[in-house]
Amino acid sequence: MQEKVVGKSAYFCRRRRRNAPKEKDKSDTQVTCAYWSNLTYIYKYMPTTLSLRSSKKLNRKKVISLSKEHNTMTSTGREILHKMKVKAGLSSSASGDTGKGKSKMSKHITHGYHTVEGKSNHAMEDYVVSDFKQVHDKELGLFAIFDGHLGHDVASYLQTHLFDNILKEHDFWTDTESAIRRAYRATDAEILENAIALGKGGSTAVTAILINGQKLVVANVGDSRAVMCKNGVAKQLSVDHEPSREKGLIESRGGFVSNIPGDVPRVDGQLAVARAFGNKSLKIHLSSEPDMSEQMIHNDIEFLILASDGIWKVMSNQEAVDCIKHIKDAHSAAKNLVEEALSRKSKDDISCIVVRFR
């Protein structure tokens, strides 16, 4: 109980000290505290027309009933919010998020995603976008995996801002690649400007935009990966930005790559990826410039996998393709791929999107 209570709620605190029964044991004390705490809460949120005198007549059963009603409404509100996010194709950092959908323009194109929290000592840091969006007379499939590190705030920011920034670019429809590159840089600048609120962490990103079901544009920074299945053969559309591969660029910026501490190369001995959003303290040695690729969707293209490194640490591209190539339902395929990674002892957060084209 706080010492300083203002307004009429102080009445209940004085009543508690004067009238509350003496403590007989620990359980009696807990019930008494819960009773007066709920009574104070109910008075605070009741209509202002309720007089103090009538509020004194509230008995214990009414207090418990109203408290349960409040908890039920809160729980229902959370469930509604979660369903809205799933319907919008937005997966928050929570273990076991899952969803699916399909194109309205091309009924045979479907998508599904599944996420699982890893066994590390931090909360889930992956965020997902998996949705189709109608823009004027065109349809866009927007798919992305954002794998945060040192916190989830940057990944969350990317989930809600990166695609919006891309679509705001004036030449998105005429020069899509240039528009995406500028949007990546602009979004990273926004994150750095808001580093106090978003924290010292960062995030990788792999994004895929499907235009009218015909053209796929992939961009990425970091080690989240995009892999396409073409006639049963895996084709990687993204680039893993490992510090060892970009050592020269990092050193030209005044940084260094070291395997100490740990057993993998890290930028300045800290970060295991050479490109990322955020990470303000390392940004002088890091890049947020994406690698990009374009792919026309012909009949020989079967499906696309977007996944965080929780899958790629334990599976090759071809193993991932072989694991799900006979599964026609995109959502089931994504879930199966995650479960296969878990069976191979992957300990990292895992997020996976599968887009089936036929």
TrEMBL record:
InterPro entries: PP2C, PPM-type-like_dom_sf, PPM-type_phosphatase-like_dom. Keywords: Hydrolase, Magnesium, Manganese, Metal-binding, Protein phosphatase. Pfam families: PP2C (PF00481). Its EC number is 3.1.3.16. SUPFAM superfamilies: PP2C-like. It catalyses: O-phospho-L-threonyl-[protein] + H2O = L-threonyl-[protein] + phosphate; O-phospho-L-seryl-[protein] + H2O = L-seryl-[protein] + phosphate. This is protein-serine/threonine phosphatase. Its cofactor is Mn(2+); Mg(2+). Belongs to the PP2C family. One of its GO terms (biological process) is regulation of intracellular signal transduction. It comes from the Eukaryota. Coiled coil: none annotated. Residues 110-357 form the PPM-type phosphatase domain.
